[in-house]
UniProtKB/TrEMBL annotation:
Top class in the EC scheme: transferase
Pathway(s) the chain acts in: Carbohydrate acid metabolism
GO molecular function, one term: gluconokinase activity
EC number from the UniProt entry: 2.7.1.12
Source domain of life: Bacteria
Keyword Ion transport: no
Annotated InterPro entries: P-loop_NTPase (IPR027417), Shikimate/glucono_kinase (IPR031322), Therm_gnt_kin (IPR006001)
Keyword Transferase among record annotations: yes
Record's catalysed reaction(s): D-gluconate + ATP = 6-phospho-D-gluconate + ADP + H(+)
Family to which the UniProt record says this protein belongs: Belongs to the gluconokinase GntK/GntV family.
SUPFAM superfamilies with a match to the protein in the record: P-loop containing nucleoside triphosphate hydrolases
The protein's name: Gluconokinase
Organism name: Kushneria indalinina DSM 14324
Length: 176
């Protein structure tokens, strides 16, 4: 059964859906945003060309590379907050310092952490022939500073796609 939010009683909210590459941010984020009635933005589309070029060559981004990109996403959150509109942005948010930059756009930012093991995510990436290599995935896990329960809602992605979406929707609904 597809569960939809009751739009009449819902406040606007800004949501970060985060996790390592291949965790499902875009696929899950789009579906959850659709079911919760908010706009979905793929944060990767806001990377400057030089970042895209580096990633295409298999070169990991530095904190300096990410700074302007994260600030652009924080500005998107701030704009949606000013306009009292809900938005969900898919962004890796690997480090706490990155999430802190994003939170500058909205101190009430809700974070959904798509939490899965290296093996689970690697298997899924190989099944869909994702451009990320196993080495780059390992780099993402090496960089990841998992958020604590005081910072984010952890979603177990080892379950089925539908179950993961239901978990996300149910957690967001419980906040209302």
């Amino acid at each position: 059964m597809v569960k939809q939010f009751d739009q009449r009683h819902r406040q606007s909210r800004r949501i970060l859906i985060m996790g390592v590459s291949g965790s499902g941010k875009s696929t899950i984020g789009e579906e959850v945003a659709d079911r919760t009635g908010c706009e979905y933005i793929d944060g990767d589309k806001y990377h400057p060309p030089e970042n895209i070029e580096k990633m295409t060559k298999g070169v990991s981004l530095t904190d300096e590379d990410r700074q302007g990109w994260l600030e652009a996403l924080a500005n998107l959150y701030a704009q949606h907050r000013r306009d009292d509109k809900s938005v969900m942005i898919g962004c890796s948010g690997l480090k706490k310092s990155y999430r802190d930059i994003l939170r500058q756009g909205d101190p009430d930012l809700v974070i959904l952490f798509l939490d899965g093991s290296y093996d689970t995510i690697l298997q899924r990436m190989q099944e869909r022939q994702h451009f990320f290599s196993p080495e780059m995935l390992q780099t993402q896990f090496d960089t990841l500073q998992p958020p604590g329960s005081d910072e984010a809602i952890s979603i177990d992605i080892s379950k089925s796609f539908d179950n993961v979406i239901d978990q996300c929707v149910n957690e967001l609904e419980a906040l209302d």
